[in-house]
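Intended use. Records like the one below are meant for learning the mapping from a protein sequence to its folded structure. Do not use them to infer anything beyond what is encoded.
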Amino acid sequence: MLGLNRPLLVAGLTASLLATAAILPAPAQNAPMRLAQGGPPPGPPPGAGPQDNGPMDVNVFYDQLSRYGTWVEHPDYQFVFIPNDVGQGWRPYQEGRWVWTDQYGWYWESYEPFGWATYHYGRWGYDPSYGWFWVPGDTWSPAWVTWRKGGGRTGWAPVAPDRPGYAVGQPAYYAPPVQESWVFVEDRYMGEEDLVSYVAPIPEINVYLDAAPDYYEPSWADGYYVNRGFGYDVYDAPIRDRLYTRDVVYVDNRDQLFYDNGRLGIFAPAIAIGNQFSPPPRYERRLDPGRRAMIRQYVRDDRDWGRDRPGMFAPSAALLGAIEPERRRELREARFNNPDIYRRQLEQMQRQRADQVEKVRREAAARNAVLEQQRRQAVEQKRQEFRQIRDQYRVRAQQVQGRPEGRPGKRPAVAPGAVPGVRPGVAPGAVPGQRPDAGNAAQRQQIERQRVQQEQMRAQQQRQQADQLRQQQQAGEAQRRAAEQQRAQQERARQQQAGEAQRRAAEQQRAQQQRAQQDRAAEQQRAQQQRAQQQRAAEQQRTQQQRAQQQRAAEQQRAQQQKASQQRAAEQQRAQQQRASQQQQRAAEQQRAQQQRASQQAQQRAAQQQRAQQAQQQRAQQQRAVQQQRQQPPQQRPAPNAQQRKPVPPGTPGAPQ
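Structure written out for the chain above:
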């Protein structure tokens, strides 16, 4: 597909739609677009009621998706579906695999219980107030994604809503809701059963897009939408041999989904939404932040990439998170009405909020390792559940094969010249599913004979296709075994050869058409590398500053610890000195007390000695007085009174010897 300018592309689509509307009759213009609708072959089966073959309405989404998520009222898209418990790092079209089908090209096969609807009808959008949300639609496609390829990688992203209300009919243009929508894997992993383990990091998306100049979008062909832009034959033989190829058949409800080696059973009912519909039985007006499927990692840089390529210009989730809800709604309205005004407003907001967005990116980059670990843990938790669902699909394939009646049939082909959007087999103005006139028996018999012939032809084609598939599978199995043996022995050499072949093919393809784009991509890549080097230098400088700060903090901490230890030593010394002083005081007090006791004892002994001396002196005086009395003549002696005559006990001082 040629890289057209966006205004020209929009103008061309608008003109083609107006031209188509001008030639359609009035009933066909007013009828909702039901493109590539599934269902049984034309003509009601025996015993069917008048509406058994009619289309379903939006209630089929309300009823079957409500158990796996929440319906929320949206100001622009009526009611949107938000899945529950999808895990960290979840994005649409990430957890599943690509299957190649001859009918539709690349078909996205997912084991998520809501995938039959959300990956094949409607549109995916993103808003920080809601997280990832799905807008119902009435048109079936093998996958509503836009593709990019180049540089040894393949990428895809969901198509965003392009108008208010539900997604009726084809989109006006194919652009992702945000830059972080893109899912890239290396070409060698395109055949893996679970691609989520091999997706490229979100911060590197801009680098991969710059290196992927080839693009394509779903297109209308043979009465339905297909994804055949990149066939599986663009990949080298070792990769191509590992890709899954199956024939698509239809089942009656979601619980009958299955696959086996050669077939893929899908549920693709005809949907007629119309202009009037009832809301879901249960919905919420606002969803708690903890229940939103949010983007936590952002592209590293969104400057000057994607300007010259249709459908690539989209805001980053970091920018949407940095602006107010009112400004986000203004962006949506501009996107609905005029892509050029939308581009200018987006560029203006990017310039105005550049510092804030860069801060958000730096904060997210600091958490990338933790977020990536959480994403892998969430994927690992769901891996066992997906294995069980895959086993159920294989068991159902055996059950469907064993049913004698009611086997799913192929989608009816649209006759040459049929108008996209008009249900096959319904005349203009007729009611879908209505039986022909009961009196026209011949016409009914002719229709029945045609139906039987078509069934026989389909059965014969199925048998032929089954034989071809078995032969292809046998040949492919032999090739796969040989390739596996060769890869086991020469894995490194094979990778080098595959890389050289891919580079030569890419160089030959880009040599004539996109040499100027290569120069611009190289310039942008060099500029990005310079910016990356500058960022690494700045990060190293910040790291050195942080280390210096940490060293200073450690030194301050050691100084504080030394000061604290010195203070503790001084306090201990003061405490010891205080204890020693107290001990000295107690010793001095004890010594003083002892001295006082000794002094008191000395005083007591001196007093006793003094009393003893006084008593001796008194006895001596008494003895002298007695001797003096004895020496006097008797007549001069005083007469003793009665008291004096009282005998004195022996030993008493003054007693006669």
